[in-house]
Specification:
Number of helices: 22
CATH topology of the largest domain: Rossmann fold
Bound molecules: adenosine-5'-triphosphate, magnesium ion, zinc ion
CATH superfamily of the largest domain: P-loop containing nucleotide triphosphate hydrolases
Largest sheet: 5 strands, parallel
Number of domains: 3
Radius of gyration: 28 Å
Shape: elongated
Structural class: alpha/beta
């Protein structure tokens, strides 16, 4: 008898359907054959499955077992196939009637004792099951909240193989998992509030502008001035994630196996801060069985590169393509995998190796040579992706003493949301969704200056010897500042503020 079980394999952040066909025959010598490009963990499924079956009180009659995982041309990895394989064996040997398994999707790892363990990538598989019109999806209990984000079919969380079989035999009732956005935990980021940052009004204003236009930022200041603190709070002023965006983010964490047990939809924008010693693979993804890297884990959120000059040039170079395209493509011998990677980049650095150049209270002990060498370590092409340079000076004592840091993240966020809405309306149907993406003809069209604006910018460019690179960035920033002010026209005062947000253009020359 042949039983066919439906489940899914993960490629990138999406799932493809896998059918596990189990043929059980009493004739011939007992044997077990597994075909269909199964990799390591899947090959070992046999031992786990037989132990789990035995421990759960099922005895299979002796016979020849052939398992085919279709489509045979695609690699199957991971342990999610344990449960469908075990149930397939029971169905093929007549323990569970075929009608009872028809239409169900199953996934989960089995322990030797028959308990179900969480597996990675359940959200993409659940989306697939929904699309395929599954009767329901049976998953380990810890994956149930994640799988239930898809509301196309009932999702049941299970503790053991025995429970799964009783349910399929109609001997046990289970309550389907309910999607609840309120109960969704994030497990990734605990978002702090700008209220806690005292003083630093200019830096906060700059981050508000960055958030409003989706601009990448470089924070520059002496040690302990609060650069890390400010960057960590950027997600709290970005617009709330839409359901679609939250789904994208949760899928990435799902396939990276980084969702906390029992966690559902992630609703906080991610904040990732990879160390400067992180490898290229850790940053952009890849590896033997490809995994999303930090740029993808920061998708729809913030990627924070602290101590920017400490990163190897080569490492920063690989970030260029994803930052530009919003996706990473990883080519491996046999296949190409794509992960989303649309994140905001926030970088931080000290102004010099000792950290105190320009600080009124500390003397800088670096030579001009040392400072020049330190700054030259910044990769030009990466700097090209950064619209704002912000100075974060040491906080004066009076500011630290203040009771609160002024404006809360919620207030700033509401202003950011309004500015984003203006951009959405303006760029509807265009190849651009926020000011940071303005380029070419769109930049010309939407960043028109009046005569006073032209005069101001021309004067500043000459006086500060600004480059063409700086020019487009200043226009984009001025556009965002105008949007925050609710103005369609870019007024000279907006340009002036934008010019001030390009610190490096001045100090580096
Ligand atoms: N503006 C501020 N308001 C309140 N506390 C602050 C402020 N700035 C700094 N601090 C305090 O100083 C600590 C150090 O700040 P933070 O780590 O953000 O500095 P940094 O600029 O990233 O320093 P480094 O260059 O050494 O990485 C913070 O944890 C916080 O307690
Ligand atoms: Mg820091
Ligand atoms: Zn110094």
């Amino acid at each position: 008898m042949i039983a066919r079980m439906a489940c899914g394999g993960v490629e990138g952040v999406d799932a493809f359907r896998v059918d596990i066909e189990v043929d059980f025959s009493r004739q011939g010598l007992p044997a077990f054959t597994l075909v269909g490009l199964a990799e390591g963990a899947v090959r070992e499924a046999r031992d786990r499955v037989f132990s789990a079956l035995r421990a759960s009180g099922f005895r299979l009659p002796p016979g020849r077992i052939t398992v085919n995982m279709a489509p045979a041309g695609k690699k199957k990895a991971g342990t999610a196939y344990d449960l469908p394989l075990a149930v397939g064996l029971l169905a093929a040997s007549g323990v569970i009637p075929h009608d009872n398994i028809q239409g169900w999707f199953l996934a989960g790892e089995l322990s030797l004792t028959g308990h179900l363990k969480a597996v990675a990538g359940m959200l993409p598989v659940s989306i697939l099951a929904g699309k395929e019109g599954a009767r329901g999806f049976l998953v380990p209990e810890e994956n149930a909240a994640e799988a239930a984000i898809v509301r196309d079919m009932p999702v049941y969380g299970l503790k053991t193989l025995g429970e799964c079989v009783s349910f399929l035999l109609g001997k046990k009732e289970l309550v389907p998992e309910v999607f609840s956005s309120a109960a969704a935990t994030d497990g990734v980021t605990v978002c702090a509030d700008f209220l806690e940052v005292k003083g630093q009004l200019a830096a906060k204003r700059a981050l508000e502008i960055a958030a409003a236009g989706g601009h990448n930022v470089l924070l520059m200041g002496p040690p302990g001035s609060g650069k890390t603190m400010l960057a960590q709070r950027l997600p709290s002023i970005l617009p709330p994630l839409s359901f679609e965006e939250a789904l994208e983010v949760t899928k990435i964490y799902s396939v990276a196996d980084l969702l906390a047990s029992g966690s559902g939809l992630l609703q906080v924008r991610p904040f990732r801060s990879p160390h400067h010693t992180a490898s290229e693979i850790a940053l952009i993804g890849g590896g033997h069985s490809p995994r999303p890297g930090e740029v993808s884990l920061a998708h729809r959120g913030v990627l924070f590169l602290d101590e920017l000059p400490e990163y190897k040039k080569q490492t920063l170079e690989v970030l260029r393509q994803p930052l530009e395209d919003g996706v990473v493509t990883i080519s491996r011998a046999a296949r190409t995998v794509t992960y989303p990677a649309a994140c905001m980049l926030v970088a931080a650095m000290n102004p010099c190796p000792c950290g105190y150049a320009g600080d009124p209270l500390h003397e800088c002990s670096c030579s001009a040579m040392q400072i020049a060498r330190y700054r030259s370590r910044l990769s030009g092409p990466l700097l090209d992706r950064i619209d704002l340079h912000v100075e974060v000076p040491a906080v004066p004592y009076e500011d630290l003493q203040a009771r609160s840091g002024g404006v809360s993240s919620a207030t700033i966020r509401s202003r950011v949301v309004l500015a984003r809405q203006r951009q959405e309306v303006r760029y509807a149907g265009k190849k651009c969704c926020c000011n940071a993406e303005l380029a070419g003809s769109l930049l010309e069209e939407y960043c028109r200056l009046d005569a006073a604006g032209h005069a101001l910018l021309e004067n500043a460019m000459r006086r500060l010897a600004l480059s063409a690179r700086a020019y487009t960035r200043i226009l984009r920033l001025a556009r965002t500042i105008a949007d925050l002010a609710g103005e369609e026209q870019i007024l000279p005062e907006f340009l002036a503020e934008a010019i001030a947000l390009r610190v490096l253009d001045r100090v580096m020359q």
